[in-house]
Amino acid sequence: MSDTATRVARIEQALRAAFPDAAFTLVDESHLHRGHAGAREGKGHFRLSIASAAFANQLPLARHRRVFAALAALMETDIHALSIDARAPDQG
Fold this sequence. Notes:
The chain has a single domain (3-91), classed as GMP Synthetase, Chain A, domain 3 (2-Layer Sandwich). By secondary structure, the protein is α+β, with helices and mostly antiparallel strands. 40% of the residues lie in helices and 25% in strands.
């Protein structure tokens, strides 16, 4: 497995552990940021769209905080930038 595939697998595993009911799409956009400081450090740029019942009745900031908490360790080692679209399942 490549470094990129391993990184994506680790992120997906952490998301599944934190949000077992979630439907999500994780896109590695690191190739768009070659030469950027985070890329030089070996970290990636990702776009996440996630729907989970855990986000019901929460404001967007609280949802983002929950995602960042779930990925805290990986933010130190694998993730330089993360764009998040977090919703409850009934929000489409």
